[in-house]
Amino acid sequence: MSRQAHNSWVVLSPPFAERSLARCVFREHAQRLAVLVEQDADDATMGGALEAARGDVPKEERSTKLTAALSLLTDLARQRWLVRVTDAGEVEVQRPAGERLDPRREKARLRSQELVKRNEQLREPATRKFIESVVSPRGQQLSVYSLLRDGRELAASLRKARALPSEERPAALRWVIDPYLQFVEGDERCEHTRLRLQDIWRYFRHTWTNQYVSTPGRTMAFLVRDRSQSNHPVIGIGALGSPIVQIRERDAWLGWHPEAFMDFVTESPSAKLGVWLNKTIDTAIGELFVADLYAEELLTARDLHAPSVEVIDRLIAYGEDQREKHHRFANSPEMKRDLRRERSGDSTEHWRARAESHLYKSKRALTLADMLRSRMVLQRYLSGSPSVEAVRRLLANSDGVRMVKKVLRKARADRVGIAMADITVCGAVAPYSPLLGGKLVSMLAASPEVVDAYQRKYLEQESEIASSMAGRPIVRPSELVFLGTTSLYGIGSSQYNRLRMSAERLGGRPGERLEYVEIGRSEAFGTSHFTTSTVDALVKLVQQSSNGQRVNSIFGEGVSPKLRKLRDGLDQLNLPTDALLQHGRARIVYGVALARNLREYLLGMDGVPDYIFTLDDPRAGTEAISAWWMERWLSRRIESDDVLDEVARHTSVRDGRYLLHGACVRPPAAEEVQPTLFDDLVY
Asked: What ranges do the domains of the chain cover?
């Protein structure tokens, strides 16, 4: 899409009857919003305009369609989309032209987008109740405030360390700040405060610019704490989560984007590629439950080794039929697996039942059709032992190229959720944040101790989708070899810039580095600029539709059920879906390679990762990273009196119910927008 098209005016024409009250209210609301955007009105004023528009409609004439349209239009105005009503009475909107804004203005605009949802969440009664539960001491349980370090004391201690000779300063700084990692597991409690570690983590997560949401799939949260002080105050928090399945910039950098991979294998064809293709197809077919497909007479055991076009066509037709039945009959609560199920018993019966559901019958049949078609092509060119010449002939044929890409997607899908993770939360809290504590937390997120903890946590975990496809427990390797993340804003992240250290300090080889590499910018596409009320209204609209495709939010059903629901809702309103989902906030994509044979291991060509650091003593790695951070960042940072003055600003003095401290969560009133210190943190 060209830049001009990217910022063109688009028409919003919900299917309201001509001269209806709904059409008039929608148009008049657009006119009010156009003025408010021009005046740069705040979020509360926009919300007031929405309530006024709703009040213009008698209760008996209000509809889900009008509610969704008004709420969506208000969200766009809040994000500074331009709004206008043409002479012909058409409502049009235009995405903010971010490239014409100066960096500070653009950052402020994006922060306002995030704060809308964050403040909406902090106003919720359940969130307020949670905050009150951890702030108030109860019996042996201390207040979460006991985990906030007083900035005046910290600044004074750092000034004393700064006054020492340079050779004495490192040891002195370790007495002032002594970081360590603590992983958040189950209902484990802090030994100093008796608070649940999960509650501690969640409390500090609410100080972020954006709202706190749980994510499906694998997740591992951790605290970075300071053992130099009583109660071991919190320096920062972090979390790893299952990665986004497809990010073009990341996949190109890894070398497993289809086009990049084909360029690589075409330029350097080898017999190893043929071996890998055979191995991947054999493994994929071997991990599929097929007994019921035999019973349905869709294929025989012989067809697995000598497939035919007729067998493949039958599997495709069966898979599509089962997919249609899934959408008609799926019951979401029954389909969702309780991930906390005890693992002590035999889980085969559970996975067999999952495999025989309409969803996984469809997935199995279609996957098997893909793999059998790939096997047919492979047998045509590589019937015997693979040779370089045979691989060249394969890659010179269009069927061969399509087959290699299909196998690549399968190999990538098998590893993307287990050997890779996204850093979903990462940053320091006050008073450590002005000291670039975010850089410490970021590097610890890629530390040997985190890799080791990830391995131990998922060592015996049965893969949700693979086990459902196999009808039996499947345990994938849990070796983490790549971390990805993005900046919250598209104009740079001071937290990840120049973040690199010698791998030799972690037991690695000379010349190698553990580093955050900027690998591109993501597409400005998603749902984060819509409020919960808008999402709920759109989902309700789809549910009321007689012809909408049912989206069940079942893990394994497909990518981003929320995005699909929003698409369906926007379609119901006859709105330009792609234009409205492009929110205009491109983010910088970062990657951290933890292994030397990154691509080979991720594709299953190598069976064991070759880490750039040693895992023999993971906690020693944490100590080494902490020492590096003090030398590289902290010792230089404390030379600034302005920085230490900022540290001292975060005190334990109370201002009414709350502390004058940047790590204290202040739920905003209906008209408030809480300021935040965390501008460079990932979501």
From this structure: 3-100+525-581, 116-243+420-523+587-615+628-659, 251-332+346-416
